[in-house]
Design a protein that fits this description.
Elements (H helix, E strand, L loop, with lengths): L2 E6 L11 H4 L4 H15 L2 E6 L3 H10 L4 E5 L3 H4 L1 H10 L3 E5 L21 E4 L4 H18 L2
Parallel strand pairs: 1-2, 1-3, 3-4, 4-5
Helix pairs in contact: 2-6, 3-5
Amino acid sequence: MTKFLVINGPNLNALGSRDAAVYGSVTLAQIEGRISEKATELGVEADFFQSNSEGAIVDYIQGNPAQGIIINPGALTHYGYSLRDALEDTCLPIVEVHLSNIHAREEWRRHSVIGGIAKGQISGLGWRGYMAALEYLAGLINEEASQ
């Protein structure tokens, strides 16, 4: 079965109690539940991981084969070069997701070290951005399989 890694970086474990005006009121567990339901509909598997540690995320990426990655790197978006290298080394399609619109926030949040290696970036759609990323990756894999 097609498997996608769904990775969340630092502080995303605090969703639901963080600034709701910026991050929404949905918890990470609720987002993961919604992703699981959508994955079942699409006939794919989603494997979830969250850590506040860049090294733990790198270890997870290196130790879990998959067909694509959805990642919300949190603050690692802006300076996580070892994360970027680990993602690039997979040679997998990657979709970067952000709950808030990072391009409408502080200047330092507008640059992503991940963006240059990702197939796409979804920013500002809240939890729905994960759904769009999952649908995109599932469609991409299906198209590649039918060629």
